[in-house]
Write a structure and sequence with these properties.
It holds the Pfam family Peptidase_M1. Keywords: Signal. InterPro entries: Peptidase_M1_aminopeptidases (IPR050344), Peptidase_M1_dom (IPR014782), Peptidase_M4/M1_CTD_sf (IPR027268). By secondary structure, the protein is an alpha+beta fold. The longest helix is centred in the middle third of the chain and has 22 residues. The protein is elongated. The N terminus is likely disordered. Bound molecules: zinc ion (ZN). Zinc ion binds next to helix 11.
């Protein structure tokens, strides 16, 4: 019902009012009022395109980046848990600038007691002042105490023993926290190269105690006297800081979270370890004849074409290995080309399996997928680690480029999950049972498959697509979480991968948020902010907004443009728009630059019926509408009481108005109708007659954008006969009013219910207001019995005082 006249005038107005002054002035008024342009051009915010980075989001025609090659000799002292090493860096200045100094990253310095990271670590478990600090004391965990003790007992951070030029001449250097500036005796001109020689060493941290991306893990229960260790070495050598066209030296202090961005280069690394150790490292082993047995080399060869991973070191051999130690040493020699970092792992505990991934193509037809893990990894690792490595490459390459390196490795150790070129550290383990068997839970299985896919995925982003992790966590974690969600759901969609739109809803509506475009160390809630939200956003961009064809083309274009180069956020945003041909400024603004959330409410639906203008039809309809209105309770009750009205009691007194109501049609109106029809132009008459004949259902839907984030409206409706229809309304519907819009839907059949985003594809945080009419929300309720908490006043001390003191034996019995 409602506003039948409104309809007519709307039809009449549409033809004439396109350029009316009223519409024009209201648009101006909006910009003066509360209007917010959610579609404002993002170019105002992005850096100006230049010869290094084009407006298309591509490397510009004068794009450059530096190169740093490393030659490193390192020795692991297992007893002291220390490495000592000497490196030579060959640095190529490909920039157009002259450099007077070179900045080096000394990440191990984060563990020094006076590092910025240690000094600014905050305490988060204060006593509650509202309880007078009595009932809720401050809390410190045994883990925190153990860490504090370790940091006090051990001298940590880099010892820099020598810094010299290529001829051995000592160079001046200044250590600034986790960075070191080396002053060059002669400025390094554009196009020139220089050599730096650095001798260094450090005590390795106990990873379980200190936490971090590398370190050792001790296994005291191994058969060997004193136990064994697994050593994971990363951020272990002084690394040249990146020098870029967009930030010059990236020498922002390392605070632990904002990770790294390095220069690409070639590595030659010799690793001197106890002879019974197995070493996994970035790159390819070059002296396998010296460090592997003939049997091991044969197994490796056999693994290349194997259907399932082949043991190079079997579980039995590893178990035998970990029973004893040796004084002998072996030197493993690795080479890696065009990598931005180098990490390695070493232990006598390692089981080693391998399987060749026959990728095909010209880039790297065969990749050796390999896993290294102790017996604690067990069957879980044996079954799934190397297979997960291969699955990752299969999926990621489809979205980006062929995996370009000869190896891809997964190593088990104390680090939950961390990535480096060709090597990843992954944490899941099995549990030893009393009967000596090992089992693992479903969640540990999911953890293993998920973390291996995620970390191997990082070899693509950011190890190859070299985004700046120190500044933008989302550029690697967000893109990688999006793709690990693709790979993960192609492995097993019943595992929750956390990239579906509904995964991010609770975070999106929470308070205390920063935009995705926030520097890594300042991000609140890193997981949802830098992983889940951008991943869910890209998932929505792919499945809802662009569709797979456009998204996949643009995303692949981005990956290929920036493989082995340095993209910035602007390059990603620009490439996705330029290659898809879809303006996404509103999307980046909403999802990446704001803390808005999605909450589109369908608050009102009007059903309209076109007036025929024929008074004999229209006025009869209006009479019917009047009759359909509910009778007042007063009148109903009077009737129920049998109370007659004066009019009813006096039927002999009647006049004209008793016979004709206010809807009675007169000839005056009939004449007006005829003259209305005569004045219509032929096309107007044709249109009007057809509309009257069809008598369609006109629905006007009022949408309110409560979350602020503009999004497409995914509208679905159900007819009274049970059939359904849907409409995709692009986000641009909000361009002139981002808060509320109305939409006309015309249908043949009568509609029973309208729904917005019924399949939860847009991360709409409030589903309830998506339905018209509203729906009853199914939920659960449990009856519970209240229990009273015990404190030091309410405990029954009279009764408790009778308790006997338990003996040590009784205690142990109880624990079994
Ligand atoms: Zn990650």
């Amino acid at each position: 019902m409602k506003s039948t006249l409104y309809w007519c005038s709307a039809l009449a107005l549409a033809a004439t009012q396109l350029f009316s002054t009223a519409a024009y002035s209201s648009a101006i008024q909006q910009t003066k009022g509360t209007f917010e342009d959610k579609f404002r051009q993002l170019d105002e915010v992005l850096p100006t395109p230049n010869v290094y980075r084009s407006a298309a989001g591509e490397p510009g025609e004068q794009y450059w980046q530096q190169q740093a090659n490393y030659s490193i000799k390192v020795r692991l002292d297992e007893e002291k848990r220390r490495i000592d090493a000497a490196e030579t860096i060959t640095y190529f200045n490909n920039s157009p600038y002259t450099l007077k100094y070179i900045w080096i990253q000394l990440d191990q310095n984060i563990f020094k007691n006076d590092s910025m990271a240690e000094l600014t670590a905050t305490f988060n478990s204060k006593p509650d002042p509202s309880l007078g600090g009595v009932d809720r004391p401050a809390r410190i965990s045994l883990n925190q105490l153990r860490r504090q003790q370790f940091m006090t007992d051990n001298e940590l951070g880099f010892a820099i023993n020598k810094v010299a030029d290529g001829r051995g001449k000592a160079l001046d250097f200044v250590v600034v926290g986790t960075n070191m500036r080396i002053d060059l005796p002669q400025p390094l001109k554009a196009g020139d190269k220089t050599s730096l020689a650095i001798d260094f060493g450090f005590n390795i941290i106990d990873s379980d105690t200190v936490g971090g991306r590398s370190g050792y893990e001790h296994f005291p229960d191994d058969a060997r006297e004193g136990g064994n260790d697994i050593f994971l070495l990363a951020q272990w050598y002084p690394r040249v800081a990146a020098f870029t066209d967009y930030e010059a030296w990236t020498n922002k202090e390392f605070l632990g979270r904002g990770e790294f961005t390095q220069e690409f280069g070639d590595f030659e690394v010799t690793i001197d370890v106890p002879a019974d150790h197995i070493v996994s490292a970035t790159g390819v082993l070059k002296n396998d004849r010296e460090v592997l047995t003939k049997t091991q080399r044969e197994r490796l060869e056999q693994s290349r074409k194997a259907k399932r991973p082949v043991f190079v070191v079997t579980p039995e051999e590893a178990l035998e290995n970990e029973k004893e130690g040796t004084d002998k040493r072996k030197v493993w020699r690795f080479e890696a080309e065009n990598v931005r970092d180098f990490a390695w792992a070493s232990s006598r505990k390692f089981i080693w399996d391998a399987k060749g991934y026959q990728q095909g193509g010209n880039v790297q037809p065969e990749v050796m997928a390999m896993s290294f893990y102790p017996k604690e990894g067990g069957e879980l690792w044996e079954k799934y680690s190397t297979e997960s490595v291969i699955h990752t490459m299969e999926v990621y390459s489809r979205f980006s480029f062929d995996y370009p390196y000869p190896t891809a490795q997964s190593v088990n150790g104390p680090v939950g999950g961390m990535e480096y070129p060709m090597i990843t550290f992954n944490g899941p383990r099995t549990i030893l049972q009393d009967d000596g068997s090992r089992t693992y839970s479903l969640s540990e299985k999911r953890f293993l498959i998920g973390v291996v896919i995620h970390e191997i995925g990082h070899i693509y982003f950011p190890m190859i697509v070299n985004s700046d992790e120190r500044q933008w966590t989302w550029m690697d974690e967000g893109l990688n979480s999006f793709l690990d969600g693709v790979a993960g759901r192609e492995w097993d969609p019943t595992i929750p991968w956390g990239v579906e739109p509904r995964s991010i809803v609770d975070y999106m509506k929470s308070t205390n948020q920063v935009p995705i475009m926030t520097q890594s160390d300042s991000v609140l809630n890193l997981g949802p902010n830098a992983y889940t939200k951008p991943a869910a956003a890209l998932n929505i961009l792919r499945e809802v907004i662009l569709g797979r064809e456009l998204f996949d083309f643009a995303f692949k274009e981005y990956a290929q443009r920036w493989a082995f180069k340095r993209p910035t956020p602007a390059d990603f945003f620009r490439t996705m728009e330029e290659a898809s041909g879809v303006d996404l400024d509103w999307f980046w603004r909403g999802w990446f630059y704001s803390t808005d959330h999605v909450d589109i409410a369908l608050d009102r639906v009007y059903k309209l019926r076109l007036d025929t203008q024929d008074p004999d039809i229209d006025w009869e309809r209006r009479r019917q509408e009047e009759t359909d209105k509910p009778t007042s309770l007063f009148v109903q009750r009077n009737q129920a009481e049998g109370r007659k009205t004066w009019v009813e009691l006096n039927p002999d007194v009647r006049d004209f108005h008793d016979e004709n109501d206010r809807f009675t049609v007169t000839n005056k109106q009939r004449n007006a109708y005829q003259s209305f029809l005569e004045k219509l132009e032929p096309w107007e008459r044709k249109t009007f007659d057809r509309a009257i004949a069809e008598d369609k259902n006109y629905y006007v839907l009022d949408f309110n954008n409560l979350g602020g984030l503009v999004m497409p409206i995914l509208l679905q409706w159900t007819y009274t006969d049970g059939s359904q229809d849907s409409m995709y309304i692009p986000a641009e519907i909000w361009r002139r009013n981002a808060k509320s819009v109305s939409k006309l839907i015309v249908t043949d059949k009568e509609v029973l219910e309208f729904a917005v985003d019924p399949n939860w594809e847009t991360a709409d945080v409030d589903i309830e207001n998506n339905y018209y009419p509203r729906k009853i929300i199914p939920s659960r309720i449990e009856a519970f019995k209240a229990t009273r908490g015990q404190d030091h006043i309410s405990r029954d001390i009279m009764q408790d005082a009778k308790t006997k003191l338990k003996t040590k034996e009784a205690n142990e019995e109880e624990q079994d």
